[in-house]
Amino acid sequence: MRKKIKLVFILGGIMVGMLFTTVIALQLALEVTDNLHVMGVTRLDNGNTLLCYSKTSFIAKYQKGLIENRSQPILLGEHAVIEVTPQGQIVWSFSDVVFPHEAIKIPNGNIWIADTINDRMIEVNPQTNQIEWEWNPHDVNWTEINPEWDENSWYMNPTPWDWSHLNDVDYKKYNSSFEACLISLRNFDTIVEINYTAEIAAGQGNWGNASNIVWLYGERDNYTLLNHQHNPDYLDSGNIVVSDSENARLLELDYSSGTPLSPYKQIVWSYSGGLRWPRDINEVDGGQAFIVTDSLNGRIFKVTRAKQIIWQFTYDLISPYETKILDNGNILIGNAFNGMAMEITPFGASAIVTWSYGIPAAKAMQYYIYSYLIGCCVGIIVILKLLFEKKFLSYWMIPSIVGIILCVLLMCFYTVTTSATIIFFRDLTHALGIDV
Hints:
The chain is an alpha+beta fold. It has helices at about 1-30, 55-65, 195-200, 360-385, 390-415, 420-430; strands at about 35-45, 50-55, 80-85, 90-95, 100-105, 110-115, 120-125, 130-135, 165-175, 180-185, 190-195, 215-220, 230-235, 240-245, 250-255, 265-270, 280-285, 290-295, 300-305, 310-315, 320-325, 330-335, 340-345, 350-355. The protein has two domains: about 1-30 and about 365-430, no CATH class; about 35-360, TolB, C-terminal domain (Neuraminidase). Helix content is about 25%, strand content about 35%. The strands form six sheets. A four-stranded antiparallel sheet has the order 1-2-3-4. A four-stranded antiparallel sheet has the order 5-6-7-8, with no helix packed on it. The chain is globular, with a radius of gyration of 25 Å.
């Protein structure tokens, strides 16, 4: 009988220890990984880096729908576009944004920002932090673009927030004629090109004129064209490349095909080999290859026009958002869910990290959990030693401590390399249907 009681105490102690450890680990994971969710990244001529971030806690609220219905406020410090030095010092910031996805510097020295949840593209003077131009799809009479986009269509029925999910902007100068910007409206399944020169000439109060939309591709809910796309870019050839994310493919569009304001254009190249929610593509090697951001596969890879993968990089990536090709051949990465901006140098069949900014969420969680659990173990020993007799301790406390240690060892085994944790996070975001 005594042996059975002793066995119950031992097994119960181990279970209590493991349960306690698991609860603490989950709670701590939620608390300490509220770091930066890094989206757009841009290397400036002065060597500094522009990056767009939101706090991870906001992403959770966004997925629950709490932001759209305004049941929770936007908090100060949750979002910003910042400029950081190679040493990690913040030398400029702009925070009048919600979930910014892209920021680029244009020739006049100002910064274009895709202010995603606010459904606008803004031009900010970094010297004054004043908005000098704004393009907002709410201002456009979309029926002038396409008569079928009437008062009953999505285009003419805006919602207060995140109606278009404007998630990207790119710049181009057409010789001496005019400057343009290419804008991605994810929830419209549409990309549009704006005559920036005409917008500036029109002056405030006349921004968003439908006549200044000079080219487009895609149409809301016509998923044969686009389905919740990301990061359209101008190619040197004049064509447009875009990540057709929910269709799991990459497209190169013939810019000159069809009529400028028709939703239809000719696809001259595509790639869909094993992609899971691709969100960026950039040309390299004179247009003979591309650098692809394959978000839910947690990888950056180089693929040729012949569709041969040359190399791929996965280390420390959790749902990466975009890349920028640097003048030295390195690649800048916005590492989204792992809370970092990274610079990598291609090396053989992979690449090596040469610079980073931010705290990796997966590693931060491990370090905090292990440190916290060590403190908990010590605390439990001290408290039980004060409260209970030694005989009881031998039956209850020691097995509990064994349970805690066993759970920690299991965690260590699972996360002995960060890649296992990264795969867990990556698959978790996919299982939760996270689409940001």
